[in-house]
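== Sequence entry ==
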Amino acid sequence: MARLDPLREGFQRTWTSISEGWSRLTDAAGQAITRFTPGHHESGEGNRDLARRNVGWGLLPVEVFDQGERIEVRLEAPGLDRDDIEVEVIDDQLRIAGEKRIEREHRDGDYHVAECAYGRFARLIPLPAPVKADSARARYRNGVLDVTLEKSDGHRRRRIEVQSR
């Protein structure tokens, strides 16, 4: 039993290090790392097999800009069709979901390289202020989704000048 203690301790240290590293990576990536799950539209056994191999983690970088009267959100999501994107406001968050479909497969010999993730995804993006959901506008062009949201009344930011005595 005493022989296993150093092995257990080494495993525990390694696991803790991996967990902490993963947390730092996801924090540094600003939640851009998104999990893709199998899509609904792959048909045929070959496409389903390919879809399973390409499911995984991918990057969907997002930028949020506070423009005073409005909030602008920009999400890079190349390879989608406009009709495959869902955008909704849920409380003080913007939910963007969609499906990136596999269109073709490239094989060279016995190797299969997949650097892109395909399938369904969803991102919840915290908004810096409450917004009027009814005024939201979204546009998808050249692989970039732009969402403009008007801030709700009474929750706009106001700079307050600090007076000297």
Notes: The beta strands are 33-35, 57-59, 62-66, 70-76, 85-90, 93-100, 119-126, 137-141, 144-150.
